[in-house]
Every structure is written in C-alpha cells, then in structure tokens.
Amino acid sequence: MIEFLRETLGPHYLVVKFVHVFAVMAWSWSTAIAYTSYLKPAYLKWRKNPDDPILEQRRDWAFEQFDRGAVVEHTAFPVLLLSGGLLFVLGNWNLDFHWLLFKLSIVVLVFFPIEVADYWLSHMGGNKYRIRTRGTPEKYQRYIQHHWKFFRITTPLITIFMPLVIFLAIVKPAFI
C-alpha cells in the first residue's frame, strides 16, 4: 500500500504539501477572528451584566454563530491530518527527525483532543442552536458555560502550540 501511494502520489508531493498547508491555515485561523472579535467580547459584556436580556441574546447569538462557523475549522482538520500522513509517507520521513516527532506529539497530544471536544461542543451534543430549539434553557445555559470553560482552557494552549508547530514545520530545527 505504501509503495502504491509513493508511486501514484509521489510526483504530486508539492500539491499534497499545498493542500496540507492550506488546510493548516484554514484550521488555525478560521475561528480566531470570530472568537476574539465577537464571541469573547459578547460573553465578557454579558458577564458584567448577566441580567441584561439584550446582552444575553448577543452572547447566545455569538455562540451559535461560532458553532456554525467552526464548520470550516472542522472540515480542515481531517484534511490536514490526511495530507500530513501522506506527506510523511511520500517524503520518506521517519521519527528520527526530532523536530517532526515533537511536532507530531503536539498534534496528537494537544490538538487532537482539543478538536474532538470542539467537534462535540459545536456540532454534536453541545450544539447550542439545537439545544435552544429543543426548549431546554437550563441545558443551554450549562453548555454555554461548558464551551466558555473549553475556550479558557484551550486558548492559551493554541496560542503557544500553534506557532510552535508552524515553526517546527518550516524551520525543521536540528537542535531539537
């Protein structure tokens, strides 16, 4: 199977690399503006005045729109995993490259668990729009809080590890 992939896709290594880099860009930046410019300010304004129904409505709208917008991020992530795997096979990479081992460790131990939780919170059981339309306001409020806690935990991780992974991929430092 590996030989078949190398023979078939090997001549298209740079195209696979383009797909991978494009997916990384879409995944890493698609929700950054929505979070920092809309969701976070709406949530923080509501926290200052939780009895204001207009602020609560804005907060809820921001969370629901964020869930919808995360489709780009959540489509790009499997594409980058698949294209990254292909690059590993096509480029004859191995884990003797310490920078690559470090990068893959971050992807597997940090990003993958974050994305699994994020998929669930945005599209599955934690989807705020579906919870709201099913008429369960207590559950809705609980999941708004769950998603906010998720952002508070993951934002520093993403802020640290995203640039590090990009650095490792571009520089491929020998000192690691």
List the helices and strands and how they pair.
Layout: H1 2-9, H2 13-29, H3 32-48, H4 53-90, H5 98-123, H6 128-133, H7 137-171
Helix pairs in contact: 2-4, 3-4, 4-5, 5-7
Q: Classify the beta-strand content into a percent band.
A: under 5%
Average pLDDT across residues? 91
* Most strands sheet: none
Number of helices: 7
Shape estimate: elongated
Written description of the protein model:
With 176 residues, this protein is mainly alpha-helical. The chain has one domain. It is built from seven helices and no strands. The longest helix is centred in the middle third of the chain and has 38 residues, at 53-90. The relative contact order is 0.11. The mean pLDDT is 91.
Describe this protein with a few key phrases.
mainly alpha; 176 residues
Short synopsis of the structure:
With 176 residues, the protein is mainly α. The chain has one domain (2-171). It has helices at 2-9, 13-29, 32-48, 53-90, 98-123, 128-133, 137-171.
